[in-house]
Amino acid sequence: MAEIPTSDYPTIDPTSFDLIISATGLSASLLAASASIAGKSVLHLDPNPFYGSHFSSLPLPYFLSYISSPSPSPNLYSDVEASSESLPEPSRSFLVDLVGPRLLYCSDETVDLLLRSGASHHVEFKSVDSSLVYWDGKLCSVPDSRQAIFKDKSLGLTEKSQMMKFFKLVQSHISLTRSGATTESGEEGGVMIPEEDLEMPFVEFLKKQRLPPKIRALVLYAIAMADYEQDNGDSCKMVVSTREGIETISLYTSSIGRFANAVGAFIYPMYGHGELPQAFCRCAAVKGALYVLRMPVIDILTDKESNKYIGVRLASGQEIFSSKLVLDPSYQIPASLSPRETVVSSNLSSYVAKGVCITDRSLEPNSANILLVFPPKSLHQEQSTAVRALQISGNVAVCPSGFFIVHLSTPCEDAALGKEYINSAMKALFNSRELPAESVEAQTKEEGESVEAPTQEEGETKPTLLWSCAFVQELREASYDGAVSICPMPDANLDFRNILSTTRKLFQNMYPGEEFIPQNSAPDNIDDDADEGSPE
Amino acid sequence: MHGRPRKATKQEDPAAAAAKSARLRELQSQVLHFQHNRIYTKEAVSVSSKLLEINPEIYTGWNYRKLAFQHNLNEVSDTDTIKSAIEDELRMVEVALRRNPKSYGAWYHRKWILGQKLVPANFDHEFRLLDKLLKADARNFHGWNYHRFIARLKDVSEEEELKFTMDMINTNFSNYSAWHNRSMLLSKLLRKKVKGFHEEESILSDEFELVRQALFTDPSDQSGWFYHLWLLDQTSTPHKPHLVSSWPSDKLNIEISAQFKEKCERFPIIFCFNQRVDGVNLATVTVNSKLVSSEHITWKPLSANNSRKSKIWVAFLENFNKYCDNSEGLSVEIIVHCCESIVHLKFVMKLSHMYHQEKNRDGFEELFLWDCPKSQEINPYLVSYDPWRLRVESVEEDAKWHLDTLSAEIALFKEMSECDEDSKFVKLTLARLLGAHNSIKSGGSSYFEEMLKLYDDLIKLDAPHYRYYRDERSLVLLDQMTSSKDSLVEYCSRCENSSFSCINPQLCINFSGLNLTRVGFVERLLWVQILDLSHNNLTSISGLEALQLLVCLNLSHNQIMSFTALEPIKSLQSLKVLDLSFNEIGSHPVNTSRYLCSSPLSHTCNVTETMEELARENIQIGDFWEAILLFESLQLVQLDMQGNPVTNERCRVLVEKVIPCLKWLDGKPVR
To answer: Which residues in chain A have Cβ-Cβ distances shorter than 8 Å to B171?
Structure first.
């Protein structure tokens, strides 16, 4: 660590806390907020000059340097490859999520936590206008509701009827489950999915419902949000069970219409996902947590006799003591202190390949914010994971109006392969700026990689790529061991549900018996109108 | 709002409820006081506001406000004052509507205010209000009515209104009002041939495509099916009325028996149209023959409700029998200038060559027996009457699009019924589509068996509506039986045991024991003289009035509940033999059809001579006036009424009085 003049740093008083957290990512901020609400004294530090750590939204130049620099997070980001040196201007007006592509379900726990903690007062949301799927080389809308099925132009009549029938079955199952019926008690007025069907792979259940391949793909990858190819039987890495599939659909459908002014199931925070950790930090601050940015932890102090954690030495040289410590996964901890218990995470891949694109035209006219999925095999015969993309626009204040940022991601074992999928997805969506449409076509034909060579007409209607970059992020799991916990990295999922449950586990491990952000913990309890208004 | 069970209203605190009702009573009596004494001061009007805000259902309150409004603005010409008065009223209505968005009085008051057109209406505000209302309940028909009112007031084009219905359907296609409004607007646009709406067929095709999306997405939602029904109607019903059949049919040689010639002085001419028409008269129908000129002919509509419009029109050739003795017979030519088309008919009446053998026999000396054996096969040529040709000619041209559309729909719904076996909507629509297809394309691949199966399924599947399905099934069956000469001959038998005035040959149509619940396709049976409808489930015989040649009618073992249900028989002047035995006449004390038919009670007919005569003889008419009205208009020779609850000795006596020419009653000779 380079010598930094100590005089720049403030002195922290008091010098002893219940909890020290070094990192201001979503998980860390939630821990700070929940510990503060539980009455613990919290010192919340971040080595960076900004909030959010790996969950931040950064202006494009900073984003690029953040993921490219070897420090402070060695090895977490790799294979960074930008389309050009020159960034689209004004480059600082483009706010890029480190966690992208990511969204919140209107009904998911993140929203509940925001409301419960009062953090919702610090964030505003916009809804995602449409959800698309890449199918047969074309973008089709995802018919995710009765009305959407009615309006859909790409589904055949029989497909519509099959899909709606399936939705009705799921809906009846969900509502009966909610009303407390069990599979055994054959309730009248509705059908429940039998227990043995709930245990089977979701894809098998869909086949049993006689749904054709296209609808199976829509349900699996665009609604139940499966990330891995489900159709290849035993070799599938992560089989989604019917129960899990139904749970996600249940969340999806209950999200539609939760807020009067949200169009679909998903919402996106104004100014980017970096706002979320900040909102929770504010909650923590209201409850008395102490905040110091630009303050790296340079050493961990241990008790000489027991070799147990007692405190940290800061870059300022000051030593602060606490009974618990939460660190960022990028922090290099002495092996003796390294937490051994990992919080079980369902991510099997070790990497996630990501892409960020900037364009000046929307993927679909009349829609600003769009969720998009490339189901497995839609780009390559060997493609075994779904590639997700999210287009966000000026109306969520992440870029100048008239521009669009498209985030892409796919989980992968092999960094190179993951990046290849990201690049083909970009090719499928955009015309690259350097190459006119014809030469792109020629090139893809020569390479023979792409399953669907873009045709001339499609080439003309595609938005042009102004700038893009692809990179790979390592997935590190959260862990804990007595006093020291490591909080999780952004995962490969579309939502924060996994990160949230991991955070909850960390909290329960640190403070058994305390409730994780209890109901009505919002200051002044001013969110009575919670369900009416949140996203603007 | 819809599809949700109504919740019981919350139990109010009794003290609060009592206070509320006391206040309401107080306000109400105040308003009534103002109303009576014509007090229209500001304070008085504001009391009515208070009342209506609590209970917008008090219509007198609204009427009082209308009077007050008129009174107070009577001498005002200052626009601002008028404007503010109107705004006050509109605001008041808004408050009332917030209390009850379905208050007729409040909506009417709003329309009344704006309908005065005292100042230009603030349409933006009205549409915003409607938007809010329809967001809360997209199917509130008051809202839709008001929307139409405002659109008319603002002179919004029908195209724009059509777009509005599309928006509403896109928001939620389960919206009866939106679909309904769409059908109304499209009808208007198509009728007026507005720009972009010339091509009716392509517009309707698009609408089929649209409603299909709704039907396939959610077959259990009824709203789309109603729209589909409307579209089907547009596709299957010809717009123009036309002649479906006539008696006699074109080029018919009628052989007339001696009795017929001797006994009958009038020969009926019958026209059947595909829809109710008017204007059949001397000007539109020319009759050429040496017997009569058109002037002596009076055309009469045959309709139950004395309407001037009817599907069936009748006229009689008087004294025709004088002219058909000679060898060429009597030739008659008719030209019908109806409904933008001209139809020529020509027929010849001749005496039967069996004239001399039959000469000595007089009708109905013996009892007419219905159990005529199905003796021998009937040669189809015996049914000389041919209404089928006319039908084929008149429809098949220009029907290609209709047939194609119907075929496509049939294929689609067959597919749908395969994956959704128990949907009554699918089955019913499929049956209706098949029927529509049948009605346009005669012969060829007929769907009768399929339709019968569908209705049989529906009767089981949807028990609450089984009566409707049974009716429809009856019509399909009748359609099938009468669809061609060959099929009709199956139900014909030769009547050997009777001798009465007839048009040769004597054929009995036997439709007994077929579970029929109603009568239909009479236009193909105009020539029938002997009809057996026994052992069915008929409750009504409406339609039979067209069979003007009918001599013998068997309605025994049906479910006819009253004499009034037999009203159509009244116009069958040649009827001689009627079997009503084993029905349910008189079984139901409250007979609803009694109030629909002409009766002394409704002053649609007078107390007749017969009734007066009976009264003079001290015979109690009592409950039998329907029977009297029915039978006194007929010249029955043979009547069977046994096995009906109404039948008793008193009834028998009465009937014998009313029908002097009766020879046989319940199988026994009348003294």
So the answer is: 147
